[in-house]
Amino acid sequence: MSVIRFGVSLEDHVMHELDEYVKENKFPNRSQAIRNLIEKNSVEKKWQCNNEVAGAIVIVYDHHKNDVSNKSNDIQHDYFHLILSAQHIHLSHDLCLETIAVKGEAQQLTELADKIIALKGVRHGKLVMSRAD
Ligand code: NI
Q: Are 130 and 46 in contact (CB under 8 A)?
């Protein structure tokens, strides 16, 4: 495998972010960090396929704001055939944690997760998947 060098132009703040990423992940240099980001991206792309996968969508939101509970519920009913279970935990007076266990085609799970995570008011959201075939 040959290694190719190339120049990258980045704005100050983006470079700062990259350096933070290097520090947080204890990469020996920026090249390693960029390599890691590219690999991550291509793994995520592989999920845009028809493989049977299982996983979980996790979201944290403030239930007083933006009617997230109801909207998330509506979306989940549209995709009921992919949902194995949903757990709602009241984290505090304001915050809720929802874990939705899912199974189906990677592409469809990604579509479902994107819709829920994109809801206004969701503070944090993530889909975790693993091959299930
Ligand atoms: Ni709650």
A: no
CATH number, position 87: 3.30.70.1150
pLDDT (tens digit per residue) in 29-72:
999 999 988 877 776 666 777 888 999 999 999 999 889 999 99
Q: How confident is the model at residue 125 (pLDDT cuts 50, 70, 90)?
A: very high
32 and 56 assigned to the same domain: no
Let me know whether 26 and 58 are in one domain.
no
Task: Quote the ligand 1 centre to 59 CA distance (angstroms).
Answer: 11
Q: Cβ distance 117 to 57 under 8 Å? A: yes
Rounded to two decimals, the pTM is 0.68
Residue 85's domain spans which residues? 52-131
Give distance in angstroms: CA of 73 to centre of ligand 1. 13
| Tally of domains within the chain | 2
Kindly give the distance from the C-alpha atom of residue 54 to the centroid of ligand 1, in angstroms, as a whole number.
Answer: 25
98: CA distance to ligand 1 center in Å? 8
Residue 65 CA, ligand 1 centroid: distance in Å: 12
Residues with CB under 5 A from ligand 1 (ion): 90, 96
Query: How many angstroms separate the CA atoms of 54 and 133, rounded?
Result: 9
